[in-house]
């Protein structure tokens, strides 16, 4: 039987989602917990692969087991067993062909930029000291909806078959005193959001014109884009499925 878990995690303590030998990862912690609690070897598949230090306020994962489980009881046990950085909101049965990663139709990330000093928000926002031209940044972000090859914003030497993605929304807005970049796409490449944000901030600081930003996109060259911004201010905030999970 296949079960989905709706969860969230603070990525500060982990080297990303995916299992890595000798490194603490969210996937490894979940698999260890489920294997102990269900008393059978359990493999967990996530809806994506967040990088080291990246957070998820909404994340889905699935696992398969031979025998049916009491979902509410398992959720409670997991929350007692797991470290404080991970919370399970819900565990529920799904059709055997529903896949946490490949069935997802869209994902949304948010990147938080602090334009004023705040002693409480600094662990989860990126402080900018220079005034930004948000209108120009939004004009550049809108160009992302017109392209499908994001090689310029992809980490080099990955095992991804294609760098094609479909971005359906990308914009900067003020939210509760923070400047927030929200981007939705059918899929994301490794380091893609952080590289896009870093390049858009160059536009906002007047270091890159709209024409130059478009040229960066069209060159399909990671070296042409800006530096990646730090991971601690990036959150995966929404994952969408046809079933409305």
SSE inventory with pairings:
Blueprint: E1 2-9, H1 26-38, E2 44-46, E3 55-64, H2 71-81, E4 86-94, E5 106-114, E6 126-127, H3 134-143, E7 167-175, E8 178-185, H4 192-204, H5 210-219, E9 234-240
Parallel strand pairs: 3-9, 5-6
Antiparallel strand pairs: 1-3, 1-4, 2-3, 5-8, 5-9, 7-8
Helix pairs in contact: 3-4
Task: Give an overview in words.
The structure is a single chain. Strand 7 and strand 8 form a beta hairpin. Helices cover 23% and strands 27% of the residues. With 245 residues, the protein is α+β, with helices and mostly antiparallel strands. The longest helix is centred in the first third of the chain and has 13 residues. Helix 3 crosses helix 4. Strands 1, 2, 3, 4, 5, 6, 7, 8 and 9 form a 9-stranded mixed beta sheet that branches. The chain starts with a strand and ends in a 5-residue tail after the last strand. It folds into 2 domains: 93 residues, Pseudouridine synthase I, catalytic domain, N-terminal subdomain (Alpha-Beta Plaits, 2-Layer Sandwich), CATH 3.30.70; 133 residues, Pseudouridine synthase I, catalytic domain, C-terminal subdomain (Alpha-Beta Plaits, 2-Layer Sandwich).
Shape: globular
Indicate the CATH architecture of the largest domain. 2-Layer Sandwich
CATH class of the largest domain: Alpha Beta
The SS-based structural class is alpha+beta
Major sheet details: 9 strands, mixed
Q: Please tell me how large the radius of gyration is.
A: 19 Å
CATH homologous group name of the largest domain: Pseudouridine synthase I, catalytic domain, C-terminal subdomain
SS field, number of helical segments: 5
Helix content: 10-25%
- CATH third-level topology of the largest domain: Alpha-Beta Plaits
Per DSSP E runs of 2 or more residues, the count of β-strands stands at 9
The total number of structural domains is 2
Task: Provide the residue-averaged pLDDT.
Answer: 95
The separation of the N and C termini measures: 17 Å
Instruction: Give the amount of beta strand, in percent.
Output: 25-35%
Could you spell the SSE succession in H and E letters? EHEEHEEEHEEHHE
């Amino acid at each position: 039987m296949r079960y989905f878990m709706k969860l969230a995690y603070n990525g500060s303590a982990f080297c990303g989602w995916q299992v890595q030998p000798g490194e603490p990862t969210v996937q490894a912690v979940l698999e260890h917990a489920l294997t102990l609690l269900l008393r059978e070897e359990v493999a967990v598949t996530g809806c994506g692969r967040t990088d080291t230090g990246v957070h998820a306020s909404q994340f889905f994962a699935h696992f398969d087991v031979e025998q049916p489980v009491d979902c509410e009881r398992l959720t409670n046990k997991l929350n007692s067993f797991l470290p404080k950085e991970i919370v399970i909101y819900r565990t529920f049965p799904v059709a055997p062909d529903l896949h946490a990663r490949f069935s997802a139709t869209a994902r949304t990330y948010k990147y938080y930029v602090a334009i004023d000093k705040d002693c409480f928000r600094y662990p989860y926002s990126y402080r900018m000291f220079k005034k930004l031209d948000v209108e120009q940044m939004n004009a550049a972000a809108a160009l992302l909806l017109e392209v499908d090859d994001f090689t310029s914003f992809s980490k080099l030497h990955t095992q991804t078959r294609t760098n094609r993605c479909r971005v359906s929304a990308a914009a900067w807005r003020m939210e509760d005193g923070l400047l927030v970049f929200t981007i939705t796409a059918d899929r994301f490449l490794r380091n893609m959001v952080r590289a896009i944000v870093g390049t858009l901030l160059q536009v906002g600081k007047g270091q890159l014109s709209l024409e130059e930003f478009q040229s960066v996109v069209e060159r399909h060259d990671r070296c042409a884009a800006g530096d990646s911004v730090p991971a601690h201010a990036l959150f995966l905030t929404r994952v969408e499925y046809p079933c409305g999970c």
